[in-house]
Amino acid sequence: LFGGLEEQKPDALLALIGMCNADPRPEKIDVGVGVYRDSAGGTPILRAVKAAEKILLETQQTKTYLGSQGDAHYVELLRPIIFGDAGDQDRIVGVQTPGGCGALRLGADLIAKANPEARIFVGQPTWPNHMPLIECAGVKMVAHPYYDRDSRSITFDAMMDALNEARAGDLLLLHGCCHNPTGADLDLDQWKAVADLVARNGLVPFVDLAYQGLGNGLEPDAAGTRLVVEAAEQALVAHSCDKNFGVYRERTGSLFIKGRNRTEAGKVFGNLMSLARTMWSMPPDHGAAVVRIILDDAELRADWNTELQEMCARIRALRARLAAFDPRLAYIDGQNGMFSMLPLSKEAVVALRSEHGIYMADSGRFNVVGLSDESVDRFAAAVVEKL
Ligand code: PLP
Ligand code: TYF
To answer: Domain Aminotransferase class I/classII large spans what residues (predicted)?
Structure first.
């Protein structure tokens, strides 16, 4: 049965974890996979999460099934965080998913089921997992320009020209904030221009919002998402709490979909339930239960907000420090989230690994927050030498 299978390449980002762990040099710098790190280089569990886990352990009475929609109260608590008090809420349905990945995959499956001809326009570069998650559902991807690595800037005019080719019912994959892999987000005027195009041409935004709160704060990080969702007749939002609650391995996500009216939204919900049954039947509970407990408790929620703001501030401070090191790194301060992309050849990236023990993705993407007070200047000096 299995003899005919072809060898598969491992996930390049996850492979970096093993590569860095295997390096015995104490001065090595891990700026590979996108997890938050504190100044000591660790990814500790948030205080609010630990407290909520204790409550969950003590108060949970049953582990019986919740159903394919997962924890409905978790979904409802996220709704205002993502959409604010925007109108048309009764046209937006939401379900819990296994992480943002599950939301992307479920959304792609629904698109393929609803319209096998639908195309999804995807800016380049994008998160490498977008391709397998969306294409394996059978949705055709159309690549368009987004970011130029050498000039370190968004190619907005070229992007808008390319998006003019999209037909009514085609989808736009948009990074809600903290663009992965570049860190370069649209500004509000650019989001407005995209929202106008969406409204004018009947396009369907599919927003991937995996880092809300880690760019400029929960509200500003949702501003672009709200603009395009409000402008659109139909829209999808894949959300993740894995980064902003630091519960990565708990696989804590959700998918929200706006239909043309309540009836359509209800039909969408039923289809999401039936598609979820074909993949994971029901999402894992723990992460969503923890997030629900935190958001439902004023004190825990305030503490989570404090820690989220601390994470955000640490990322911003490291960006500012890199930018101040050399004019060629100045662009890093104007970007958001954990990632930035250096215009380095693959050879230079590999050389940084062997010469300095600096572990970043082959694309030149690095995780800003993998740096510490001790390593940031060392990193900057080594990188600038290769630019
Ligand atoms: N979207 C982007 C852009 C990401 O970087 C990630 C990271 O993992 C995800 C989605 C998926 O998040 P999750 O770990 O919740 O599946
Ligand atoms: O881009 C990153 O580093 C994060 C983490 O298959 C990640 O999004 C990386 C690879 C992967 C899943 C998550």
So the answer is: 27-382
